[in-house]
Amino acid sequence: MIPVANPASPTAGLEYLEQHSDRFIAELCEYVRCPSVSAQPAHAGDVRAAADWIAEHCRRIGLDTTVYPTAGTPVVGE
What is the mean pLDDT of each run of 10 residues along the chain (78 residues)? Predict the structure, then answer.
């Protein structure tokens, strides 16, 4: 889970975002580098890698996440 010094503070979320913005931007950049254009069959493996990345990221922040295969692109859910 995400630790917050004083979760009752109305600005706790904004303070957390500001303190960790470099990490959030780096993680976002890592994710958007995945060539996961699902309309292109040549990128099916990349789409799966992007789904795996999202699922692992969700697990790291405490969410119970699974990648479900489908006849098309995979679905990430709980």
Answer: 63 89 92 80 88 94 94 90
**Of the candidates 63, 41, 43, 44, which has an alpha carbon nearest to the alpha carbon of residue 54?**
63
Q: Return the SS3 of 61.
A: coil
Q: Per DSSP, what are the bridge partners of residue 66?
A: 77
Task: Quote the crossing angle between the two packed helices 12-19 and 21-32, to the nearest 10°.
Answer: 70
pTM above 0.90, yes or no: no
Q: Any idea what DSSP says for residue 69?
A: P
Distances (CA, A) of 32 to 11, 44, 54, 66: 29, 16, 11, 20
